[in-house]
Amino acid sequence: MEPRERRIPFEQVFNFRDLGGYPAGAGKAVRWRRLFRADGLNRLQPEDEAAFGELGVATVVDLRTVEEAEHGGRFPTHVWDVTYYHRPMFDVLPDWPTDIGDPALYLAERYLEMFASGRDAVATVFELLTHPEAYPLVFHCAAGKDRTGITAGLVLHVLGVDDDGIASDYALSGEAMQRLIVWAREQQGVFMQPRTPIPSAAVESRPETMVAFLQAVRARTGGGDGVLTSLGLDAGVGERVRELLLEPV
């Protein structure tokens, strides 16, 4: 495996990727092989043991609901020795309206709601990222697009990655979602189903969705370390996370 390969393939985990390499200003970039984002790691298979083990993951943060974790299973800590945290971003899967209008703006608004309801989960991720022993760290939800996407977006934002870079990372989930959907259609009862059908447009990963979300976050918090202050964290958390996750280009 190339040390700077962003996508990391597994048998039934389709949206696992490295957040390293993105420029973060001041001649620095995000370190490779330190921070990952993913879809349901409960679906790791025995044949994934060697590949996942090579990553040396120390910490897993699960953003799914309690019901999702109980239904689909949790990370297999009996196979890999990791510290596992279950920090749901909301209590139940959301309802979806039949008409969502502009998909990008609608999803951005939903992401703001998730940011509010999941502030403790996001704060946990940032707190863990201040500890060297927590690395490498991966956070995940079921599909790795929405809850995981906004968490990744906020972390990259605090690291200094610009909106276009963050949006381009978010957009990478589009292809992974298509593979996940094809696979899921062949399975029975793999995912918890929302009470209302998910509109097809809601599974897209349009860059403008993430840009709109980040603009709204900036308007609410002032952006940068203001995100951390809004989460009840000391601004020094940002300095520490940047120290641990950034390197000279």
State the end-to-end CA separation: 22 Å
Structural class: alpha/beta
- Helices and strands, in order, run as EEEHEHEHHEHHHHHHE
Spatial extent as radius of gyration: 17 Å
Helix fraction by DSSP (H/I, runs of at least 4): 40-55%
| Total number of beta strands | 7
CATH topology: Protein-Tyrosine Phosphatase, Chain A
Task: Report on the architecture of this protein.
The chain has helices spanning 49-55, 66-72, 103-117, 119-128, 147-159, 163-171, 173-185, 207-221, 226-230, 236-245; strands at 17-18, 28-30, 35-38, 59-62, 83-86, 137-140, 246-248. It is an alpha/beta fold and 249 residues long. It has a single domain (17-231), classed as Protein-Tyrosine Phosphatase, Chain A (Alpha-Beta Complex). It has a 5-stranded mixed beta sheet, covered by helices on one side. A two-stranded antiparallel ribbon has the order 2-7.
Summarize this structure briefly.
By secondary structure, this protein is α/β, with parallel strands linked by helices.
SSE blueprint:
Blueprint: E1 17-18, E2 28-30, E3 35-38, H1 49-55, E4 59-62, H2 66-72, E5 83-86, H3 103-117, H4 119-128, E6 137-140, H5 147-159, H6 163-171, H7 173-185, H8 207-221, H9 226-230, H10 236-245, E7 246-248
Parallel strand pairs: 3-6, 4-5, 4-6
Antiparallel strand pairs: 1-3, 2-7
Key words describing this protein structure:
single chain; 249 residues; five-stranded mixed beta sheet; two-stranded antiparallel ribbon; 42% helix
